# Entry
Amino acid sequence: MLKQIARFFKALNANSKPSEIAHALCLGLMLGLMPKTNALWYLIFIFFTFVRINKAFYFISLLVISQFAWLLDDVFNAVGLSILYYPQFEKTFAFLIDIPFVGFTRFNNSIVMGSLACSLIAYIPCYALAILLIKLWRTVAAPFIVRSPVVKIVTKLPFVEKILNCTQENL
# Structure
């Protein structure tokens, strides 16, 4: 567990592009909001596992957001119903449901459709916010934390020093 936390903060401060971390957070948001009982979730998950993003942030954001996604089910249901019952889309959805294996994506479920639509709408603002926060972390917060007297005292403790050396060797 300590190793994963060290990797998390190392990725925040690493030379990796902020866009890789931001995309990972946004894709984790997208999948975290969707129900996991459909083929669409698994297709998106596998596809983005092979894309160049920060996998640690991808999985962490996916797991964290999944824990709270159920709180928005009423919103997703309302958005999904409005999309599914939109008159101009009815023929398209009727055509899609007749295609083999498309039904396994459960796009006709109002919560699946609503969570997909909401996550796609939230992607760009989330991406911009993540870029801003990562840049703020790297320029302001991280140097301040490293220079703080509490961190200097804690890192000089023999037990913590041994753990830090161990995690740096294994990274």
